[in-house]
Amino acid sequence: MIETKEKILLGMLDLVAETGLEKASIGRLCKKIKVSPGNVYFYFSSKVELLNTLYYYCINSLIEAVDIKTYTEISKDEECTVYTTLMEDLVKKVIYFYKSNPCMLNFIITSKSSCYLSDEIKRGRFTGANFFNSFWEKCKDKGIIKNVSTEFIIAFILGVIYEFMKEDIIHKNISLDDEKIDILNDLIWSGLYVENRVMS
Amino acid sequence: MIETKEKILLGMLDLVAETGLEKASIGRLCKKIKVSPGNVYFYFSSKVELLNTLYYYCINSLIEAVDIKTYTEISKDEECTVYTTLMEDLVKKVIYFYKSNPCMLNFIITSKSSCYLSDEIKRGRFTGANFFNSFWEKCKDKGIIKNVSTEFIIAFILGVIYEFMKEDIIHKNISLDDEKIDILNDLIWSGLYVENRVMS
């Protein structure tokens, strides 16, 4: 059975998608998921705390979905092709994750520019992307991708993925099928690859 | 002297940056810029209409700043190097525009995922990016950039620019100086260029 805390988080996720962040009050949430305010305040001292926890919850779900260990534990001795395949898989996994969880994408995108999230989250000290830092460092060491700061690599990849996912899930201007995801992957990795190193 | 209509628009731009979209009411706007509600309602029937007009206003300002004619009127006979220089200049101009107008960046980013903007804007039928369509078509015809749909090219470029600008202006995680803008440009154009065609 789903625990109350998770029920509250998932309820808030749906509520934000329905009403937007501002109107997603704890009162409305209680009515929606039929939980008493006392029960909500037992777990979260405020709407702000609930939304911050929800952000971590979404990022952790994404981290789980992409099988982070494959990326953190990869050996330096692996061939470049293994690295490049993993990188392309990562983009695919992120896209399919958000396709299955459109409310999470909506929340991640709208909350980040809102007044609710903590400075720690906004300054990126906690983002799922950081878990991949060691992977990017190894890619740079091996000369597969450009030797630019890891922050730049993450901003580049996330910027592209988020924009395309927004166009797909929120604005419904495009629909990312396998063929289009391949094009998207090609745009991203052409941007990052070190020339003539791709096929080694 | 600045006209009342523009004063209202610019006042709203500042107000949204201060309070966020939801709390930026016409009442607060009137107090802030010392204009009567009747005067605001003479120009805009509602907050929604004001925000939609503001979106067009921001995009038009950007369009003016990047000198759109250079891009729409470029001849097909120009050399590839002229095209590539223009493309790189475009990214630089957009970045410097938003650096000088941080409230516009904040508004463009937060409003697009809000409930206030019209479907027309959200579906992208009116975005500044569309004005460049003919330029991208010519770039594709000349084989400078990949032959992918123009929507993809625009989403790719805007996604990257917006993410970096957000990190710079809103979250202050990075600061885009000339050197970093060059790196950013390199990431974007490596993604788009057709290999071995860059230097021709």
Automatic annotation (TrEMBL), chains A, B:
Residues 25-44 bind DNA. Keywords: DNA-binding. Pfam families: TetR_N (PF00440). GO terms for molecular function: DNA binding. Residues 2-62 form the HTH tetR-type domain. Signal peptide: none annotated. Transmembrane segments: none annotated. This is Transcriptional regulator, TetR family. It comes from Sebaldella termitidis (strain ATCC 33386 / NCTC 11300).
